[in-house]
Amino acid sequence: MEKFKNLKSIPAYLSLMNIDTDMIIPKQFLKTIKRTGLGKSLFYEMRYDESGKIIENFILNNEPYSKSKILIAGKNFGCGSSREHAPWALLDFGIKCVISTSYADIFYNNCFNNGILPIKVNENIIQELSEYSKRKEEIEINLENQEISYGNKSVKFNLDLAKKTRLLKGLDEISTSLEKAPSIDQYENKIKNTKPWIARND
Amino acid sequence: MAKTLYDKIWDDHLVHQQSDGTALLYVDRHLVHEVTSPQAFEGLREQNRKVRRPELTLAVPDHNVPTTDRSKGILDNESKIQVDTLRNNCKEFDVQLFDVNDKRQGIVHIIGPEQGFTQPGTVIVCGDSHTATHGAFGSLAFGIGTSEVEHVLATQTLIQKKSKNFRINVNGKLPAGVTSKDVILKIIGTIGTAGGTGYVIEFAGEVIRNLSVEQRMTICNMTIEGGARAGLIAPDNKTFEYFKDRPMSPKGNNWNKALAHWKTLYSDEDSVFDKEINIEGKDIEPLVTWGTSPQDVSPITGLVPDPEKENDEERKTAMYRSLEYMGLKPNMKISDIKIDTIFIGSCTNGRIEDLRLAAKLLEGKKIAKNVKAIVVPGSGLVKRQAEEEGLDKIFTDAGFEWREPGCSMCLAMNDDKLASKERCASTSNRNFEGRQGRGGRTHLVSPGMAVAAAIQGRLADVREIN
Hints:
The complex is a heterodimer of chains A (about 200) and B (about 475).
Chain A: E1 7-9, E2 12-14, H1 21-24, H2 44-47, E3 70-73, H3 85-93, E4 97-100, H4 105-112, E5 117-120, H5 123-134, E6 139-142, E7 147-150, E8 153-156, H6 161-169, H7 173-178, H8 181-194
Parallel strand pairs in A: 2-3, 3-4, 4-5
Antiparallel strand pairs in A: 1-6, 6-7, 7-8
Chain B: H1 5-12, E1 14-17, E2 23-26, E3 29-32, H2 38-47, E4 57-59, H3 77-93, E5 96-97, H4 108-115, E6 123-126, E7 140-143, H5 146-155, E8 157-160, E9 164-171, H6 180-191, E10 199-204, H7 206-210, H8 213-221, E11 230-232, H9 237-243, H10 252-262, E12 275-280, E13 287-289, E14 297-299, H11 313-326, E15 341-344, H12 346-349, H13 352-362, E16 372-375, H14 380-388, H15 391-398, E17 400-402, E18 423-426, E19 441-444, H16 447-456
Parallel strand pairs in B: 3-4, 3-6, 4-5, 6-7, 9-10, 9-12, 10-11, 15-16, 15-18, 16-17, 18-19
Antiparallel strand pairs in B: 1-2, 2-8, 13-14
Helix pairs in contact in B: 2-5, 6-8, 13-15, 13-16
């Protein structure tokens, strides 16, 4: 996984609440066996009409938002299915940071496995940042300092230390867990006696 | 110290508590399907890693499989590649697979319990948000992303942070015609689609205790629609009875040992919940959804809501968008909404009890002329059981199509999908925009309400049937 680097970008603002993963990437694109190539289908049904033509007034279809690295969205972003295709599509499009007041749990977790930073801020900040999107002005994200900077202002955001470290270092979670193999062995030996049916004796 | 059921299962699966507040949690059972696993197996290959405990993973194709004639195989090339990839991966990594033509094939959340692969007190994960279903048996079950699928395959563990405890008590008794689907829709309508975010929800109370295990599965299945990754119901004698003699249930002395453990799986009397609410069974009516979020519920006797009466601006905007998408006007009667299609099936309502209930209401009747209706059994074994009981005949006599098992029109990855503006009364779990096909309009209902809609050709009250 790539390390998360500080970002400077004009954000794209989608004012909708409850943006679900079916909206982010509809099911016909889940038939892929790859992680890449989903960017062109991100928000497919909002971006293209039924004949596949670009819908002009959708924000991500227009400059400079088509190059945004930061997406600002309404509350409960990423609800619904567990499909990791949602963060894959965002990333493939070029979005490395999402800002919302809240996220669905599975989507939120999936972001960190793909180097995407989902930031939680309050509604007032969303409103202030959305003005920067409308005025096509850049905002900056500094993960190390947990800070969003815009105009003359900086605001801090909260983030779990473990999650922050993973993004900063681009850590592969599986490698770190495999280092715990002795603990896993020990656990399995214990349940061999205490819960022998777990190992399947059917 | 007094513990909740969630606390007990969590503590029992702790492999390593890490200093950053996360924990390495052991996974007892892992379910895999064709859509969210190919990249995980590919990741193992790239890193030259193996599956740590192949016998603890069970795989089945369900999302992409055709529900019509399967003798010609899968015609859609991409779907075929995905199912073939699952088959090849299972072979390469030595994982048990119920292939497309296996009589045990079916929706991953139906076959797990059916086989006894699902068990109380276990941690169960799957790359699918409706994994919450298995919580009905007192297992901690939740959906994960593909990176986590790869993590489980490689390590048989997951890195997790503990959620908070939330208990929802459904008290008293349910009125006639009201089922567990209405109970969970009522709960989601009450707490909202993000109401459970950050929590594991335990469902308790007299109504829950009185439900059969299959009805409880419907409740836990849709926990994710209320924002919580996992829903739990303490196992009881009905649960233990359910697992007796299932193919993968513990056998011999292990059965006795397992049973002794399962009987410890309940929230201690004085355990503390971070959040708790009460819902009275008598207040629940047969419900339908009118919008594009599962929290958009209304009693069948109600009216489509008026966004102008909503004070929250963000919510008001969302309601207008939903009504436009759904082609509905504020204040119209819900029971005046005409229906084109009926779908009975899915991991929410595709089990034998659902089919029995629907068939009983349907017997001797015909579906309305304007309606197309399909029944998709949740698994090959559900299908076979229904056929032995003659349920298929009741459905087909009434005008329903009787299909092969799979996820089907719940998410429309195969050919079973709605056309634009086609309106469906569906026993599935999500009414999102485009969920059942681009432009398709979904009303979530119980199996009984689906039958009522099929007969009347409009959303209708199940209590008026018979």
